[in-house]
Amino acid sequence: MHAYVYKSQRKADTYVYLAERDNFDTLPEPLRRQLGPLQFVLELVLTPQRRLAREDPAVVRRHLATRGYHLQLARIERNDRGPGGCLLDGGTLDQGMSDQRVSHHGMPAVRGLDV
Known about the structure:
Helix content: 10-25%
CATH topology of the largest domain: NE1680-like fold
CATH architecture of the largest domain: Roll
Radius of gyration: 14 Å
Number of helices: 2
């Protein structure tokens, strides 16, 4: 499976993987607006053996197959967490996403990006 990676020009360290190059129609409109312009970064082949630095390749492949896109968000800093692992800005921390925020919709979220 091929993936086409784009960097948000508005949100630091935020990337979108697409199943089809330049097929931005797969992104929900509110997400597209919040990400702003996207700059193509690279094309890669996601085989089961492929490793990614910050994402689980199996999750990326599943999202590409079911949604047509995968959203990679900036990592949170350890000092953003309060007692019990709660995020200080009121978000919650999902067990399987220890380095990402989760919005009230159950989708990854980041400060200033309400998905």
